[in-house]
């Protein structure tokens, strides 16, 4: 299909679900514009195109598409090369693990916003257990989820790993990764498509987000 569509991605700077969409756009080399809005002061035009009031929203020639998983599927159908595997069963399996990543991001968010030690530890342990479960389905061959080839499922885990790496480096928060999973994380975070998927000032944006939450993570 033609690549002549005009694409605008509407974003919050901190949102990992936006980031996964940007990674797919970058990896495929698709031209798009990026519009950041303030999550505390969403404009009326955004409310009109986002029924759930969430980002990302991809506006395609004036038509809004919302929900990051749907956006990823649209991009993969329209813009080559396909990042989903061709085999229907393997494609379905990877789609399922895309959904699992959304759950892990939720656990990570609960950990970052927990107000007390008990809530923090509960969310941290839940995240750790989820990562351990994920580890059991990774291909033996590195570096990516299914081996040597980068897939759409890899797009969705990169934001999770980026935040884990920042928490380890800047906040001394260690979430244990197996050798295989660490290799996967390192490979994803080394990709230009991932490096350029956040704003240059992302460490500051992330730090400001944590300060605004006033959670236990900053009081440890």
Automatic annotation (TrEMBL):
Protein name according to UniProt: glutathione transferase
GST C-terminal domain mapped to chain residues = 87-207
Pfam families (UniProt xref): GST_C_2 (PF13410), GST_N_3 (PF13417)
Organism expressing this protein natively: Thiothrix lacustris
Q: What class of enzyme is it?
A: transferase
Classification via PROSITE patterns: GLUTAREDOXIN_2, GST_CTER, GST_NTER
Query: Lineage of the source organism?
Result: Bacteria, Pseudomonadati, Pseudomonadota, Gammaproteobacteria, Thiotrichales
Per the database record, which ranges form the GST N-terminal domain? Answer: 5-83
Kindly state which keywords UniProt assigns to this record, in alphabetical order.
Answer: Transferase
- E.C. number(s) listed in UniProt: 2.5.1.18
Which reaction is catalysed here? Answer: RX + glutathione = an S-substituted glutathione + a halide anion + H(+)
């Amino acid at each position: 299909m033609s690549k002549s569509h005009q694409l605008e991605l509407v974003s919050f700077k901190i949102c990992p679900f936006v980031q996964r969409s940007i990674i797919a756009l970058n990896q495929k080399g698709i031209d798009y514009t990026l519009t950041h809005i303030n999550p505390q002061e969403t404009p009326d035009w955004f409310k009109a195109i986002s029924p759930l009031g969430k980002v990302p929203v991809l506006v395609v020639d004036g038509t809004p598409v919302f929900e990051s998983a749907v956006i990823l599927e649209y991009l993969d159908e329209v813009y080559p090369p396909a990042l989903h595997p061709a085999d229907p069963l393997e494609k379905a399996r990877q789609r399922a693990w895309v959904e699992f990543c959304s759950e892990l991001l939720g656990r990570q968010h609960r950990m970052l916003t927990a107000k007390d030690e008990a809530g923090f530890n509960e969310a941290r342990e839940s995240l750790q257990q989820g990562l351990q479960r994920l580890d059991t389905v990774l291909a033996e061959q590195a570096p990516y989820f299914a081996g040597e080839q980068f897939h759409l499922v890899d797009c969705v885990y990169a934001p999770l790993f980026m935040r884990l790496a920042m928490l380890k480096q800047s906040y001394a928060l260690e979430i244990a990764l197996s050798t295989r999973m660490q290799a996967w994380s390192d490979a994803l975070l080394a990709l230009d498509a991932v490096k350029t998927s956040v704003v240059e000032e992302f460490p500051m944006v992330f730090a400001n987000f944590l300060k605004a939450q006033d959670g236990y993570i900053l009081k440890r």
